[in-house]
Structures are given as C-alpha cells and as structure tokens.
Design a protein that fits this description.
single chain; 6-stranded mixed β-sheet; 15 helices; 54% helix; elongated
C-alpha cells in the first residue's frame, strides 16, 4: 500500500498547476476589466454631455459629429468588453481541461501500478472518484476568483473618488491639529488631510480652539497680504489687502480673469491661501470650522442651481428648519411671491431638472429668496444679474437691496450700473487692486474704472 503515495502525489499535482493558470488568466482579466470600466465611463460621459447639451448640438448642427463620437466610444467599449470577457471565459474551459488531465494522469499512473501488481483496480477507482471531488471545488474557486478580479477593476474607480482627500478644516501641522479638542472622529481625519495639504498652511495660522465657531458676527472682513495660486508658480492673487467693514457694500470690478471670483472662493475657503491672512471680525477664518463659516455666508451666483423638487423645498434649502410661513415671507421679500402664486400648484409646483420650467429671472429670484431665508451675516453676489434682461434686472435689484440691508456685502458685477451706490469700489486687475474709491471718485480719477464705465455707457446718459 505504500505505493499509493504516488497516486496521492499525482492527485496533488493539479493544485499548483490550477493556481498558476488562475493567476495568469486573472492578471489579464483584471487589466481587461480596468480598460472596460475606463471606456464605459467615457461612453457615459459622452451620453450625459450630449443629452444635457442637446439644444447646443442641434443649434450648431453637430448631430452627425455627436453620433460619430458615440460610435467611437461604443466601439472602444465593445473591444474592451470582448478582450476582458475572452480572458474571463477562458478560465472555465482551462480548469475543465485540467480536471480531465488529472483523471488521465491518475488512470495512467494507476494502470501502470496495477500492471506491476502494486495496487488494485478498486484503489485506482477510489482515487479517481475522490480526486474529482477534490478538483471540482478548486475549479469553482478559480471561476469565483476570476469574477472577483472583474469586481476589483470596477471598484478601483469607486475608491479613486472615496480616497480623494476631503476638505481641510485645520491647516496647522498634523500634531497640533490632532491635539486640539475636535468633534468625534474628526481629529484623525483632519490630521491626515493636513498632511496632504501642509504645503498650503501658512506660518501665521492660529491654533484651532475647542470653540472653533463664530459665536457672534459683526461682519468685518479683511484680506491681509493674501497670495494664492491654483497652480504652483502661477500666482492669481498677489499680495492683496482689502477691508470691508460691517454693513458696507464693497463692489469688485475688473476684466475677465482678473481674480474677482477667486477672492470669493478664498473667503468661502473652497481653496486655501498660500500666504497672508483672511479674517472675519479679526479672527483668521482658518481657525473656524468650514461648516460654521459658510453658515454665516450667503451666496447668490450667476449660475443659479435649483434642485428637482417643489418651489417650497428649494427655498427652504437655505434653512431646513424654516416654517412654511417663513419660506413665503422670504419669497415676498425677494419679490418672487407674485410669480410663484401663478404657477400651477403655487409653492408645491414641482421643478424639473435644474428648474428648466422656470425663466432665468425666476430662478434668480428663488435663489435670492433662499439666501434671504438663510439670513447670512455676510452676503456674496457674483454676477447675480448679468444673464437677465434690463426689466428683470430692475426687479432683482430691488430684491437684492432688501437682501443687502444691514449686511456686509461683496458684489462682483460686470454691469457697472448695478454698483454705483456701493460704499467702495475695488478695481481688480491681474490679481491686484489697482484702483479704490467710490463710484464718483473713480470716475473723476480717470483711470481703469472710468474706461470700463464709459465703454459700457458710451452715448448714454446714466
């Protein structure tokens, strides 16, 4: 019976061979499914872009070009899918062949041993039966491993998004951040984020205190020697210093690309500054939790975004605990109540995607009502009336005046008629403040602002 060990060794021979084939095929399967996921993402992007920009496609008669782009992406998906699935489907017949090869080896070796009188036919049959029971689970495991490779290839794209560093509340060195009293679970996350962003941490940042909130707000805003660049080595904001006192309306004007919107992005901490300080009520905004900072800021942007839902829900987005009457009052103050009541279901009217069933002016009035409901201490208006007609602009201007009353306001405007009553006008050019003063002072100065103003109103009496 000792020669039965040869049959046992022959039975085990199939295990390393099967694992080697599985790893070999899985390597190419993983690569194929990774390419498939990439090409599928490109195809979905083309479809989403084309559907969203359908009017532009039709207006410029680019239907054939769009169809061709879709066809190319679809063919890329087809090729990637054929390649990935070819390798994936190759594993099953390979394992089947190996299983049959295993039977052949046992039968051949057992037959030779039987001719030598070393084993009986019954022992050979037993090895073959038990050997097949041993190989079948290995075959299923190999097929399952192959499917796992396909799933891992898809999960890589998901984890690329999940592993993207979150916004950083603390810009101090990791040790200092971790040692402060932070909300549960936040210290380790912010410490890691700080490591990823320590290049943007300036030396003069204050320590984050346990009460990293703006308990009270006057509304004084200061930029002190602020430098910033989206790409290292290409400065956008260059040593900018400005001040907006509580209740003042500060207008930011200048050519496209001068850095006006970047100033807003820095104040809201969508980006971290490279050097200098930004303070609110003499407190560095980097020492305040972003959620609390943004709760004090109200934004009315040129590109109004409204969600699929009712008019009431979209206005209430400014403050989720607001009552229905508070929502209606905000709409009345924003001069939006009159057109809302004319909608089919009034405040319960469902808005389509991006509120496509409303005009641009109506969407803008809803965004102003949303900001009024939030009741921010500091208001930011970024080209809030640039995409509407003059009549609608006049109506929106009245709503904006109500919104700005008693609040520190930063107003970006290309239509200079909208900022003539601002307390101060800052002319931004190439990331610097080149002129500063009231509307009339800057006109009398005869510089950049006068040129911008007269280029808009040449031949008009304003």
């Amino acid at each position: 019976m000792k020669f039965n060990y040869w049959l046992a060794l022959a039975s085990l021979l199939v295990v390393p061979i099967m694992f080697w084939f599985t790893q070999f095929v899985a390597r190419y399967t993983r690569r194929g499914f990774r390419d498939l996921q990439r090409d599928l993402g490109g195809l979905n992007a083309v479809m989403e872009e084309t559907i969203s920009g359908q009017k532009v496609v039709n207006a410029f008669r680019r239907n054939d070009a769009v169809v061709e782009a879709f066809r190319e992406r679809n063919e890329a998906v087809f090729r990637s899918g054929v390649s990935a699935n070819s390798y994936a489907l190759l594993l099953m017949p390979l394992t089947a062949v190996l299983g049959n090869f295993f039977v052949i080896v046992l039968a051949g070796l057992g037959g030779w041993l039987a001719l030598q009188g070393l084993v009986s036919v019954g022992v050979i049959a037993t090895f073959i039966i038990y050997g097949q029971n041993f190989v079948n689970p290995l075959r299923q495991l190999a097929n399952m491993y192959n499917a796992i490779q396909g799933a891992l290839a898809g999960s890589e794209r998901v984890f690329q998004i999940i592993d993207t560093p979150s916004e950083v509340d603390c810009v101090l060195p990791p040790a200092d951040c971790a040692s402060t009293s932070l909300p549960a679970g936040r210290a380790s996350e912010d410490a890691q984020s700080a490591r990823d962003n320590e290049g943007r941490a300036s030396e003069d940042a204050r320590p984050v205190t346990p009460d990293a909130t703006l308990a009270t707000l006057r509304g004084d805003v200061r930029f002190e020697g602020v430098h910033f660049s989206y790409v290292p080595g290409t400065p956008i904001i260059k040593g900018m210093s400005l001040e907006a006192r509580a209740g003042q309306v500060i207008a930011l004007v200048g050519p496209t690309g001068a850095g006006k919107t970047t100033i807003i992005n820095l104040l809201t901490r969508f980006y971290e500054i490279d050097a200098g300080r930004i303070t609110i009520d003499d407190r560095d905004i980097r020492t305040v939790w972003k959620a609390d900072l943004r709760r004090r800021l109200g934004l009315v942007l040129q590109d109004t975004f409204l969600f699929s839902g009712t008019v009431m829900e979209n206005i209430r987005y400014g403050r989720l605990d607001a009552t229905d009457e508070e929502v209606r009052e905000a709409a009345r103050l924003a001069d939006a109540d009159h057109f809302i009541l004319q909608l089919p279901q009034g405040y319960e009217t469902m808005l389509s995607e991006r509120a496509g069933n409303l005009s641009q002016g109506q969407r803008q009035l809803l965004s102003i009502a949303r900001a009024l409901l939030a009741d921010p201490g500091i208001l930011i208006l970024d080209e809030a009336t640039s995409s509407v007609d003059t009549r609608t602009e006049a109506r929106i201007q009245k709503s904006l005046l109500r919104l700005m009353a008693g609040r520190t306001s930063l107003v970006i405007a290309h239509r200079l008629s909208t900022i003539r009553d601002a307390d101060r006008v800052l002319v931004i050019d190439d990331g610097r403040i080149v002129e500063e003063g009231t509307h009339q002072e800057l006109l009398d100065l005869g510089g950049v602002y006068q040129h911008l103003y007269h280029s808009q109103f040449k031949g008009q009496q304003i």
